[in-house]
Amino acid sequence: MTIPSLHTVRLYIARDGFRWHRKAANGRIVSESGEAYTTKGAALEGLSMSNRDTDNYTFIDDTEEQS
Question: Element (H or E) spanning 40, and its range?
Fold first, then answer.
């Protein structure tokens, strides 16, 4: 039996660049990038530095759909 992820981290494209946010199971945003990144790589680096507990969230890459 798998335990559902408590949080979701989503990478997406905004008007000003790449951004990410982290949502709790109740749907509330508990952290966000705070700035737009000019490259996807920079956004992923910032995301990984701020969200080191990779076993506790599900990652969603919404940039693939928008490219």
Answer: helix 40-50
> What is the value of pTM for the model shown?
0.83
Domain count, the chain: 1
* Strand, coil or helix: 36: coil
pLDDT tens sequence for the chain (67 residues): 455 668 999 999 999 999 999 999 999 999 999 999 999 999 999 999 999 998 889 999 999 865 5
- Calculate the CA dihedral of residues 50, 27, 2, 10 and round it to 10 degrees: -40
Residue type, 54: T
Determine the structural domain holding residue 32 and report its residue range: 7-66
Q: Check if the beta carbon of residue 52 is closer than 8 Å to that of residue 39.
A: no
